[in-house]
């Protein structure tokens, strides 16, 4: 199974709004997410994947907007919001939930994306792959991991960002 962990795109400054959860994507953030989504769509096409089996996102506005952009360009079988993938979420709790829920989804799940925030995305990579240190994600950056649900572990493969030279 492949897991894509994505940080939302650039958001409006916090001081402009009264609560972090309602901060929307900036215009630049929308463009970043579009570029990242194009990269992801190309990767899925190269793997002969029809799209994502599951898209999990934070309930925060900027994460939901990021997920909506992904869904506008990539086929998504099922989307759900999860309160554990907020900036202050506990990656261990989410990882336990993920490894418990994925096998129960019926049809085999092959490709999953999680849209969340720093520092959660960084700590989630390290939680899933103990050989990886927490890493910085640029806005709209995507980490690709392979997951082994039987072992409850992942393996970091690569990081894609919004710069023109990603691999």
From TrEMBL:
GO CC annotation terms, alphabetical: cytoplasm
Molecular function terms from GO: protein histidine phosphatase activity
Domain of life the protein comes from: Bacteria
Pfam families for this protein: His_Phos_1 (PF00300)
NCBIfam families, per database record: sixA (TIGR00249)
Protein name: Phosphohistidine phosphatase
Originating species: Pseudidiomarina salinarum
């Amino acid at each position: 199974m492949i897991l894509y962990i994505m940080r939302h795109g650039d958001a409006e400054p916090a001081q402009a709004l009264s609560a972090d959860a309602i901060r929307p994507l900036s215009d630049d953030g929308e463009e970043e997410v579009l570029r990242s989504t194009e990269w992801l769509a190309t990767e899925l096409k190269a793997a002969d994947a029809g799209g994502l089996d599951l898209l999990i996102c934070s309930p925060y506005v900027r994460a939901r907007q990021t997920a909506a952009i992904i869904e506008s360009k990539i086929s998504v079988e099922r989307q759900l919001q999860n309160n554990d993938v907020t900036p202050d979420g506990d990656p261990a709790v989410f990882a336990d939930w993920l490894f418990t829920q994925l096998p129960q989804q019926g049809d085999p799940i092959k490709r999953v994306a999680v849209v969340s925030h720093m520092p959660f995305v960084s700590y989630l990579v390290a939680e899933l792959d103990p050989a990886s240190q927490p890493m910085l994600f640029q806005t709209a950056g995507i980490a690709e991991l392979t997951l082994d649900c039987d072992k409850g572990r992942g393996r970091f493969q690569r990081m894609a960002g919004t710069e023109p030279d990603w691999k």
